[in-house]
Amino acid sequence: MNLIDELSVDFLRVVEVAAVAAAKTMGQGDRRFSDHEAVEAMREELNKIELAGIIVIGEGERDEAPMLYINEEVGKMDDKRSTYPQVDIAVDPLEGTNLCATGTENAISVLAAAERGGLLNAPDIYMDKIIVGPSNKGRIDINAPVEENLKNIARGLNRDIEDLVIIVLNRDRHIDLIRQIRQAGARIKLISDGDLSAGIAAAMRGTGVHAVMGIGGAPEGVLTAAAMKCLNGDMQAKLYPFKDGDEERIKKMGIEGGFDKVYNVEDLAPGKNIVFAATGVTSGSLLKGIRFFGGGYRANSVIMTCTPEYKTTKFIDDIIIDSPEVVPVSLY
């Protein structure tokens, strides 16, 4: 099976449909409703595809989420299912629920997929991360001091530390990290949500972002790793205990090494064939948001692929006309 050729277009459609559903709720101030609409639309679209999929990263464990929960089977449920490609799927139907609810930039709909066993089944706990682009592959060490990592990142980009822009989630847990970055001389861009889209931006030139540091979600870490594998970026990560029961949770999921283990891209996304797809919900540094017009909508997406033979990144500007009326199409 060539996962890339068979399913990439289908997965692009999945994230686009979820993004449109979420975008219809933008600015209404109800993040749970926004997330619900995206989840429902994504699941419905996934179940139209001829694949035998398993959700390995989703909306939580079965008792916490009504759909797209961990280990849920997705794909077309018919008598041919045993012949369909077996695929592990990681999803975040709406990354940045608060961003969508408030109409703030950088909300996206995301999916990554690989052959069975190709994505780490990470627990829904926190993860400490450093994410960089291709120029700094092999230069980061999550156990090293912040200043040392910043020096190495600057060296890889042929810049001074003062030239760097580091994205950090604006959380109380990052007070010391922010202090260390500022003390080293680098600049900081604080974000309220959306460290997944930030990680992708760090791996692409022209975004004005050079690295992402700090503690975010472990599920988002796996999705980011899938994108890094397609983009030749790099990241290191460690699971981070934040609340009672986290240690028992990772043991229950069979994850070895505890909170001391350092994960790299290959640990988080070991698959040989990987697809990563994302569609903008609200406009941001990476993708434009869904733009509705009379008779249809316009969507901006990225689809990345990684195989042993090649890696591709395609930005797609999709115009969908769902009205029988004559609708003029604008170039911009």
Task: Please specify the SSE layout and strand pairing.
Elements: H1 3-23, H2 31-46, E1 52-57, E2 73-74, E3 86-95, H3 97-102, E4 108-115, E5 126-132, H4 146-156, E6 165-169, H5 175-184, E7 187-191, H6 195-202, E8 211-217, H7 218-231, E9 234-240, H8 246-252, E10 263-264, H9 265-268, E11 274-280, E12 291-293, E13 296-306, E14 311-321
Parallel strand pairs: 1-3, 6-7, 6-8
Antiparallel strand pairs: 1-2, 3-4, 4-11, 5-8, 5-9, 9-10, 11-13, 12-13, 13-14
Describe this structure in words.
By secondary structure, this protein is of the alpha+beta class. The chain has two domains: 3-119 and 273-321, Fructose-1,6-Bisphosphatase, Chain A, domain 1, CATH 3.30.540; 126-268, D-Maltodextrin-Binding Protein, domain 2. It is built from nine helices and 14 strands. It has helices at residues 3-23, 31-46, 97-102, 146-156, 175-184, 195-202, 218-231, 246-252, 265-268, and strands spanning 52-57, 73-74, 86-95, 108-115, 126-132, 165-169, 187-191, 211-217, 234-240, 263-264, 274-280, 291-293, 296-306, 311-321. Strands 1, 2, 3, 4, 11, 12, 13 and 14 form an eight-stranded mixed beta sheet that branches. Strand 6 (165-169), helix 5 and strand 7 (187-191) form a beta-alpha-beta unit. Helix 1 (3-23) runs antiparallel to helix 2 and helix 6 packs parallel to helix 7. The chain is globular, with a radius of gyration of 19 Å. The model has no long low-confidence stretch (mean pLDDT 92).
